[in-house]
Amino acid sequence: MWEIEVDNIKCGGCANGIRQQLGALSAVKAVEVDIAQGRVVLQLAEDTEAIREQILAKLLKMGYPQAGSVQGLSAVGAKAKSFVSCAVGKLSDEKSEK
User: Fold this and answer.
1) Max CA-CA distance within the chain?
2) pLDDT (tens digit, 9 = 90+) per residue, 26-70?
3) 77: Cβ–Cβ under 8 A, 6 or more apart, which residues?
4) Do residues 42 and 55 lie in contact, with contact meaning Cβ atoms separated by under 8 Å?
5) What is the 3-state secondary structure (H, E, C) of 23-83?
6) Are 7 and 75 in contact (CB under 8 A)?
7) Class for domain 2-93, per CATH?
8) Which of 74, 77, 86, 96 is the most exposed, having the fewest neighbouring CB atoms within 10 Å of its CB?
9) How sure is the predictor about 95, in pLDDT bands with cuts at 50, 70 and 90?
């Protein structure tokens, strides 16, 4: 298990988006998201530095950087991206409920 504290997780839409995007990676066996703690817990098929970097890059691209890893304008940009990822996660969740 690998735990990552990330910024910008606000709701179930955020969590759903993170689960979908990281769960699609072949190296990821399971994804849990703790919204209240801002934490992502991963079970990896193979735990290497390259895989960890790939996951951190994916989270950053989605707007959920590792806690404290981005500052200033980069942090603002990450927050904006997280709103988009959150909205996509909410829409995906609504479709799966129908």
Assistant:
1) 40
2) 999 999 999 999 999 999 998 999 999 999 999 999 999 999 887
3) 63
4) yes
5) HCCCCEEEEEEECCCCEEEEEECCCCHHHHHHHHHHHHHHCCCECCCCCHHHHHHHHHHHH
6) yes
7) alpha beta
8) 96
9) low
